[in-house]
Specification:
This protein is α/β, with parallel strands linked by helices and 142 residues long. It has one domain: 3-Layer(aba) Sandwich (Rossmann fold), CATH 3.40.50.1010. It is built from seven helices and six strands; from the N terminus they run E-H-H-H-E-H-H-E-H-E-H-E-E. The protein has a six-stranded mixed β-sheet, sandwiched between helices. The longest helix is centred in the middle third of the chain and has 13 residues, at 65-77. The radius of gyration is 16 Å and the shape is globular.
């Protein structure tokens, strides 16, 4: 076991989808502490530029006060994340998330069933809200 002393465990990259960032406003769940609880390692929270753009768009054009509040809170969550610019070439946001996670060995955090299914088919682990209270992991993190 002596040889394991110098092994450095890298943080897990967590790529957040728009709807995951709205969980605190909708359900009162602290997504950051819940993700850390589930992953049990150090993590880096990442928001891709297309997700930030989506939130800014929805914040600028809310349908009602509740939606405005939800996206204002989502925007405040981004302060705790690294924002990463990616070349998306007009790809759908879900495809950009899948591509980034696949090429960077990252976990996708989403509540979108279709995105979750796509990620699972690609072998990408997914964090999601379970029972409106907890974050759960589908897949494994190495």
């Amino acid at each position: 076991m002596k040889y394991l002393q110098n092994v450095r465990i890298l943080p897990v990259k967590i790529v957040l989808d728009t709807n995951f960032l709205t969980i605190p406003a909708e359900f009162g769940v602290d997504i950051f502490s819940e993700v850390k609880r589930v992953i049990e390692r150090s993590v880096i929270f990442i928001v891709l530029q297309p997700v930030l753009t989506e939130i800014e768009y929805r914040l600028a054009r809310p349908r009602n006060k509740a939606e405005e509040r939800k996206f204002r809170i989502a925007m405040s969550m981004i302060d705790r994340c690294d924002v990463v610019s990616v070349h998306s070439s007009d790809m759908p946001v879900d495809d950009v998330l899948i591509d980034y996670a696949h090429s960077n060995n990252a976990v996708i955090a989403t509540c979108d069933k279709e995105l979750k299914r796509k990620a699972k088919n690609e072998g990408i682990p997914v964090l999601y809200l379970r029972g409106r209270k907890y974050i759960a992991l589908d897949g494994s993190v190495l």
